[in-house]
Amino acid sequence: MKKLLLLPALLLAAWHPTQAQTFVKDPAPAPTTICYARAEDMHTRLALPAAYLEQQRRGRRSTAANIEVTYTGFTPQAQAAFQYAVDIWEALLVSPVTIRVQATWTPLGTGVLGSAGATAYYNDPSGAVRSGVGYPVALAEKIAGQELNGGTLPDINARFNSTFNWYYGTDGMVPAGRYDLVSVVLHELGHGLGFIASTSYGSGAGSYGNPPSIYASFMENLAGQPLTNNPLYPNGSAALGAQFTSGNVYFNSNLAKAVNGGVRPRLFAPATYSAGSSISHLNEATYPAGNINSLMTPNIGAAEAMHNPGPITLRMFDEMGWFNTAIRHTKLPDAETSQNFLVNATIITDGTITPGSVKLYYAVDNGALNTVAMTNTAGNNYQGIIPGPGLNHTVSYYLAAADNETGRTYTAPATYAPNVATVARYSFVIGPDATAPVVKHKPLTYLFVSQLPYQFQAQATDNVAVAGVTVEYAVNGVARPALALTRQGASSNFLGTLTTSGGPIVAGDVLTYRIVARDGAASVNQAQTATYVVNIVDFKPAQAFYTNNLNGTAPLDFVGEGFAITQPAGFSNAAIHSDHQYYDDSTLIYQMLVPITIQPTQHTLSFDEIALVEPGEPGSVYGTEAFYDYVVVEGSKDNGATWTPVADGYDARFRPNWLAAWNSSTTAAGNSNGVGTPALFAPHTFNLLSKFTPGDVVRLRFRLFGDPGAHGWGWAIDNLVIQGVTSVASELKAAGGLSVYPNPSAGLFRVRATLAKPVTGLELLVRNSLGQVVLRQAVAPAAGQLDLPVDLNKLASGLYQLSLGQPGDAASQKVLIQK
């Protein structure tokens, strides 16, 4: 994870230096909400929305939202009810981008009607109503006017309980004891569209996303104090937790208050926090069954038909940006010459622009604010001019426009509210440029020969302009001609292809490189990345057997990201370790470069391991949504085109002591600070014939998957043995290790060990506290029980390290001599 950048959660300064049209995916979790069944028969029915009835009478509006649903497991009856709810939402929303829903019909927990949430959040889409907040992807795409997560990926993931006593009709005449599927679908889609606070609660502490969701940014307490970015209620604090369970949390929206008697809508905040329900619903007691605003309350009763989101929900949605006026503008760059500066903007509104409201506000050196009425040049395009103030000045500015329908004034850049008194501004400097470009690049750590030619990618930005980006590289220490990267359109992305035209590049070579960017200033400024080292690798000939205790200086047999062969603090030897801690929403892969030919006998893969990864729900099954994070060993017999789990993935629940370590230190967000220790290592054996047949040539890899939720310490692997070739260290460990007796002693003691078969080249070594060898004793080939006398009587008292094995493959034991 691998992580994408987060924009600041709060704009503390008055000026906003970033581009208005940039946005970034939020790596924080994309949470879901839960709709629970209420046992009582409510016998209520809400009127259909007027906009839906009007659409049915006149036909579909050209601006109406388009919602496409991928159905999994639905019966025809259930799908028809679902589609009816979709038709209602389409009539109420405006979006130029198709909203995609993944809907699954499956058994859920007791009393759960359904659950749903956005699949991703994006920060600061172009035209955002507030900055420094996360927008659910469907809303972010509506505001930005473009696809953000790909044209085929779902924006909303929703699941519905296939075992409930459903009513599938669309007439709202729900019989007693049955639950209206149309109402539940409307409710859950509402969450996926943005009616979700993304809050959490644990050990008395309340938390919200970082940054908060657009919904959460409107939360207030009874006293009217905002509950996000407020030092009185820090994120993750008991003070915030007390607010979340106070019964008095409100959504401060001027638009919603206008349809709620002038008062803030009250949110569901019971004294006992309900995960997936608290804060992300309207208050049940305030908006009971039969109230026109009851759809988005936490429980849906039997015989309750709510085919209308209600005016409060719709106006809350409008406040968050479902009704919007987007001001699209590219920030002016710095300039080295004095001139008049033309400001262009495109304004897209869901209503009509208030005449004379499109304005440009600017100040020089933070002086008095000047106002320029922007001129409509054609269609949605507007222009204004900032007169050049001369050299060595800083100009700050922002744009504003209002619509007739809501009376709201929108600004670019958007300002985060509450707790920000000043309007955010762009800024640029006029005068000699001494600012170097900014270069971003995800470095290579390895490169397969088969990946050549390889396309380098980098992002480069500058306060004025980027004149050129190059890759300076060398192979085995010998420099080669620099590779020029080409800008992709008007973006900040640069691409260039590494080929062998400058000389061969083969497995075993070491490539070193850095990315260099230069600007177009009169006196050129340059920036460069660090110098990266890349191993050029290829797969090795297949072997029938493989063993590696990971302690020596073996050839490069593994490559990947998020893993390394290393020795963390507290461990006595090296092993394969994932990042500690691993990230949310990530996939870490360590690829073995030695393929294995599957044997009819001796067909096991074994290693010692620690797996402190987020445990799924009790009873959950690998491959289901509730299984959360996992580790898995995978094999491929088609050269990596497809991968098959050697066995089901597993998590910290796989062993009780792993689960105890995970639970030993958890945060309010569900993350674990539990740390892996050597005592947690446990053997694990896999049967390769369960998925492959003798003669298959299989590539193997180790994969750690982290979902968007909690994370922890990760995975460690030691003493890898494939198909019966056992190392001395692993065999001794499996048989109980070394036994030294008596210990402590005056210097005379015996060493016992068990070996299943004869081993040659065994040595017994004893080292002092400085690591110096004070005894080296050859051990004759043996099988079965070893019982060796050792005489250290002439050595001084102290602690010594005894090891038995072969170079780079030995088991060890501490020995104390006392005289």
Using only C-alpha atoms, the radius of gyration works out to: 32 Å
How big a fraction of the residues is strand? 35-45%
Distinct helical segment count: 9
Global shape: globular
Largest sheet: 9 strands, mixed
List segments where confidence is low: pLDDT < 50 over at least 5 consecutive residues: 1-29
Mean pLDDT: 89
- How many E strands? 53
Give me the secondary-structure category.
mainly beta
In terms of quaternary structure, the protein is: single chain
Report how far apart the termini are: 55 Å
Features:
53 strands; nine-stranded mixed beta sheet; six-stranded mixed beta sheet; mainly beta; single chain; disordered N terminus; 819 residues; 11% helix
Element layout with pairings:
Elements lengths: L23 E3 L6 E13 L4 H9 L8 E6 L3 H17 L6 E8 L5 E7 L2 E3 L10 E3 H8 L11 E6 L4 E2 L11 E2 H13 L5 E4 L2 E4 L10 E3 L16 H7 L4 E3 L2 H5 L7 E2 L31 E7 L5 H12 L2 E4 L12 E9 L9 E6 L5 E4 L1 E4 L2 E6 L6 E10 L6 E4 L13 E5 L7 E3 L5 E3 L5 E8 L4 E10 L2 E10 L5 E6 L11 E10 L6 E3 L3 E6 L8 E3 L9 E4 L1 E4 L8 E4 L7 E7 L3 E2 L6 E9 L17 E7 L7 E2 L10 H8 L18 E6 L9 E10 L7 E9 L5 H7 L4 E3 L6 E12 L2 E6 L5 E7 L2 E10 L6 E9 L2 E9 L2
Parallel strand pairs: 2-16, 3-4, 4-8, 9-10, 27-34
Antiparallel strand pairs: 1-6, 2-5, 5-8, 6-7, 11-12, 13-14, 14-15, 17-18, 18-22, 19-20, 19-23, 21-22, 23-24, 23-25, 26-28, 28-31, 29-30, 29-32, 30-31, 32-33, 32-34, 35-46, 36-39, 37-38, 38-46, 39-45, 40-45, 41-44, 41-46, 42-43, 42-45, 47-48, 48-51, 49-50, 49-52, 52-53
Helix pairs in contact: 2-4
